[in-house]
Amino acid sequence: MEQTLQQVLRCLLPGETVSGEMIARELRVTRAAVFKQIEQLRALGFGVESVPRQGYRLAELPDSLLAPVVQQGLDTAWAGCEVAYYACIGSTNREARLLAANGARHGTLVLADAQTAGRGRRGRGWISPAGEGIFMSLILRPDVHPSQVARLSLLTALAVANAIAEATGLDARIKWPNDIVIGGRKVCGLLLEMDADESAVHSIVAGVGINVHQRIFDEEIAHTASSLDLLGGTAYRRAEIVRAFLRQFECAMEMRDEDMMKDYCARSATLGQRVQVISLSGTYTGIAEGITDSGSLLVRADEDGALREVLAADVSVRGIMGYV
Q1: 70 or 125: which carries more pLDDT confidence?
Q2: When you count CB atoms within 10 A of the terminal residue's CB, does the N or C end of the chain come out lower?
């Protein structure tokens, strides 16, 4: 999205009437350039009114993910310090990794209205239609050893679940390790990717895809997936959910490990449930009894009563009576 467009939008967001001359002077562009951006904003659904002899006033905001809208009222210390918005992109994770490799700051957020090559766990595709979901990737530069990164996957899931609950009032739960479900339906997937060597983490990209406005799903996932709008019976503002995520992520990062794990377990949709563990070496059922500090699931196997440690990278865990 053009830089000038977003600069003009920032001038209008306070809601006061601003003259075209003042905007042009502040941005060091021509009045004609300002008018062109105003027309583009109107085409994007922004209710920009022309006030005779006074200028322009923003009377209505659409459900937009433009950086100035997302950052309006954002009070975080570092999460969302910079927002790179794209109307359409191949993958926010891929772009975030490129930006991280080129020195992007800790807390930079890559955000898109649509993706053409979104990915989930194990290389699965992630459907990313224009204007219907939230597709974002947060760049992190934590001072941790590579062995501690699994905690960040759980932390990100907790932040997303808390953010959805905060912004919508819906009872968002975590299906281990990091799928977000509401009423047994998946509404969000996460994908964390790391750039590290044996001793240090250089950067981590936390990718998040949230179904917000979607009403139609591919037949393959129609019985397990849903969207926030469908589950809540109303239309939610995506920027509000993004801001809540950034706030909740910062809060979770500041928690002690034991407190974070306690909150994660309280949000769990898996603990206490009978599950089926599917791996290359076989399948078994049991009760999910706990989660280790490293993020592994502890399952009490039905066949021998043994407590088995399940690693997220190795298996798929499903509920006996459904997705959860």
Answers
A1: 70
A2: N
